[in-house]
Write a structure and sequence with these properties.
This protein has helices at about 1-40, 85-100, 120-130, 185-195; strands spanning about 40-45, 55-60, 65, 75-80, 105-115, 135-140, 145, 150-155, 155-160, 165-170, 175-180. By secondary structure, it is α+β, with helices and mostly antiparallel strands. The chain folds into two domains: about 1-40; about 40-195, Glutaredoxin.
Length: about 200
Amino acid sequence: MANRAVRAIRVVVILLIVLAAGVAGYYYMKIKPLIRAGKRQGVYASVPARLSVNKFAFAAENGVKKSIADLRGKVVVVDVWATWCGTCLQSIPATVALRNKYPETSLEIIGLDVDDEGWAKVKPFLQKHPEINYAIALPSPAPSFLLQSIVDLKPLGKVSAIPTVFVIDRQGRLAGKFIEIGHEREIDELVAKLLIE
């Protein structure tokens, strides 16, 4: 009887070790690279270094779908955010100021919400925040999420912290990616540069 109990305990311990190794392997092979890619930011000053994101699509509240290609000729700022994100809320005044600084004909700003609930969550939020003076949209098709905010917005890029701001040149190429808050001046400078390219 004691031998049977010892064998059962050994089997359970071995299964727990195998399970832990599988979880660790999944984390290091799948999740960690996404986090690393999502937190990689940069400015791509050299035009040849910029990758096209023209195929990235999003949908407005009225259901109209657009892609970055539809905005060709404009500099585009895509601010990836969610209603539950405290730092995203802190960044709203800077995005409003950016919208006020540049005419709409040359700059398009899109607040790209990544809430799981979509418009059901965003509409009430917008009613409470009438100061938002830029377009709000959802990724289309809706991305799949790993954990809470790790998402691949192909071909725009991976996001593992929000807010994440993507700045796109007039040809639909990614010119910069900024993670979290504190990059307002850099974003403004990049937008100003792209507007005169």
